[in-house]
Every structure is written in structure tokens, then in C-alpha cells.
Specification:
- There is one protein chain.
- It is globular, with a radius of gyration of 16 Å.
- It is built from eight helices and six strands.
- It is of the alpha/beta class.
- Strands 2-3-1-4-5-6 form a six-stranded mixed beta sheet, sandwiched between helices.
- The termini are close together.
- Strand 2 and strand 3 form a beta hairpin.
- This is Pyruvate synthase subunit PorC.
- Keywords: Oxidoreductase, Pyruvate.
Length: 211
């Protein structure tokens, strides 16, 4: 089943930790929206991003967008590159919003510093709040494909069927990023995108809160 945003302006919040490609993923999503004629605005907040700190990136696109900032309770999709970060940002979702969550565990430094207790089961906690969750291990998929950095492409594949435009438009923007690289790099990202799309579709079918 494919889920599409039904609002005039699409609000996507991407969260994770430094080094996971959160900002790059948001840039690619914005490029896809702009390629189809949308007005797009984005903003990022990075806390020690290069050291693995928490990162969040807001993206809004539609016919006319005045501000990049997503207000609490208005995000259509929360794309969580890290499970606990997705849980921490759940309040940003619409009541009928969707969380796409990577279950691969990457503990942020704020946990190691004792500023935050890592939850035992972030997915269960988000579901317990009544939120629609699609979860799968994007990190494991990336490693199976031979490169952990493919995780952001896997996650872009996961969101591809939950946007108000064809998945192929987003895929083309992803691959364009690597057009100057060796052909095998382009192919790895093509496979990562397809794997993320398939994993999200399977997780959606299996989710206990599936509509």
C-alpha cells in the first residue's frame, strides 16, 4: 500500500546523528521537490554533527512556502535515521502522521554523557503513543550492501512511496549525486534505494498499526 501526503504543503522532519547523512538526505528531498516545480524551504540544526551529535533537518515544500520551520504537531513524515532520535521528535508529527524509523542502534553522545537515558524499545514507545510507525534495520541493509554510509540512501528509498510525487523522481535525484563517481558506486546506491523501498513496504504491511 502506498501512502501519499494529502496536504497542500508537505512537512518532512529528518532526524539522526552526525555522520548518518541527515542533511544530505534533506537536500536530495528538496532537490526532488524543486525539480517538480515546488517551492521548497529547509533548515538544519546540528549538535556536534561531525562528532556524532544529534542532527535534525526541517523540509517544507508546496506551491508557496514562506518558512522552513515545522511547527510541533504539523509534520507529515518523521524520517528517523536513529530510533531514539525519532522517539524524541515524535511530538512534531500530525495525529495522522507517519514515522519511518531505522532500528539500527547508534547511541548519541548525549547518552554517554549521562544527559539522556537510551530507551529500551524506542519503536514500542512511539507506537504506545498511538503513532503510525514503519520500522526496519536500515543500518543492517547498508552493511549487507557493503557500506554503512549507504544508510541514508536506504532511508530515502523508504520514504519514496510516502511523498506527493513518484518514487522515480527521488531515485533520479539520489543517483545524480553520484553521477561523477565510478559506475559501481551508482549501482550500489541504486540497490540501496530499492532495498529501502522494499523494506519499508514490507514493514508497512507487517506493522500492527497499519491502516
Amino acid at each position: 500500500m502506498t501512502t501519499r501526503c494529502k496536504y497542500d504543503t508537505t512537512n518532512i522532519l529528518v532526524v539522526g546523528t552526525g555522520g548518518q547523512g541527515v542533511m544530505t538526505a534533506t537536500e536530495i528531498l528538496a532537490e526532488a521537490a524543486i525539480a517538480l516545480g515546488h517551492d521548497a524551504k529547509k533548515t538544519e540544526v546540528a549538535g556536534m554533527a561531525q562528532r556524532g551529535g544529534v542532527v535534525s533537518s526541517h523540509l517544507r515544500f508546496g506551491q508557496k512556502v514562506l518558512s522552513p520551520q515545522i511547527s510541533p504537531g504539523t509534520a507529515d513524515v518523521l524520517l528517523g535515521f536513529e530510533a531514539a532520535e525519532a522517539m524524541r521528535w515524535r511530538h512534531m508529527l500530525r495525529p495522522d502522521g507517519l514515522v519511518l524509523m531505522n532500528t539500527g542502534r547508534l547511541v548519541p553522545p548525549i547518552v554517554e554523557l549521562g544527559l539522556y537515558d537510551y530507551p529500551d524499545d524506542p519503536v514500542a514507545e512511539v507506537r504506545a503513543a498511538g503513532t503510525h510507525v514503519v520500522s526496519f534495520d536500515a543500518s543492517a541493509i547498508a552493511l549487507e550492501l557493503g557500506e554503512i554510509r549507504l544508510g541514508n540512501t536506504v532511508m530515502l528509498g523508504a520514504i519514496a512511496d510516502h511523498l506527493p510525487f513518484p518514487a522515480e523522481v527521488l531515485e533520479q535525484c539520489v543517483l545524480q549525486r553520484f553521477a561523477h563517481k565510478k559506475p559501481e558506486i551508482v549501482d550500489m546506491n541504486r540497490r540501496a534505494f530499492a532495498a529501502g523501498r522494499a523494506a519499508a513496504a514490507e514493514a508497512l504491511r507487517a506493522a500492527p498499526d497499519a491502516a
